[in-house]
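Progress narrative, work stream C.
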Amino acid sequence: MSDIEIRDNRAAGRLEATGDGTEGEVVGHIEYFVLDAPARALVPVHTIVEPAHEGKGIAGSLARELYAIAEREGIVVAPLCPYVVKWAERHPDEAPAADPELLRAAKHWLTEHPGRF
């Protein structure tokens, strides 16, 4: 993977990867929301990498950074995104399992906000 920067665009609910020779263009992102109850959690819903940039480790870098942000903030990740779920299963040392109650609450939030994603 070449020269990727990752930024948290919390207001837009996106963790964005820029660079890879594109002069700041977003080449991949994770869409997420912040769950407040029953506990605070970052909830990734979709991971998208632009086709021209696939296979370069961008999605994995985004997932790793999402977990790092959660750790710095003292909260957890409750993944609903299939890619992040699989990434977490392969990296249990970096991605602690989410409490099933949080996952249920995250799924409920998502059904209550159908137009959000």
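Work stream C, second folded protein:
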Amino acid sequence: MDIDAWVWWLIGAVGLGIPLVLTAMPEFGMLSVGAVAGAVTAALGFGIVPQVLVFVVVSVALIAVVRPIAARHRDGRPELATGIDALKGRQAVVLERVDSGGGRIKLAGEVWSARTLDTGQSFEPGEQVDVIEIDGATAVVM
């Protein structure tokens, strides 16, 4: 039984797709696309040399072009602050006098206990303060 060259290329594409799924390495997917391009070249009746050249050119082009773009998008993604990290740097309104001994603020729609960063500093109700950090269940403000 004689199998056409384009079938071998598709088998190779599937073979390269398996490690892509198992390892999540996108390079295998790019090589798999190159193998599909080789299968198309074979189906159009070209010989083995053009098939291999198309495979190599498509695979290298995808790796050279797509990989840096994907890396840029992955690295350029800003970190998403969640939980108490999302509260640092926000502004709050003083509800009860805040000094080094304590007090109350309204932060992100909730009432929080608070204390000042500097011991000699105090804030009166209605003033805006900046949240420097969260210490347990207490906001440290200035």
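The chain has three helices and five strands. No further action is required on this item.
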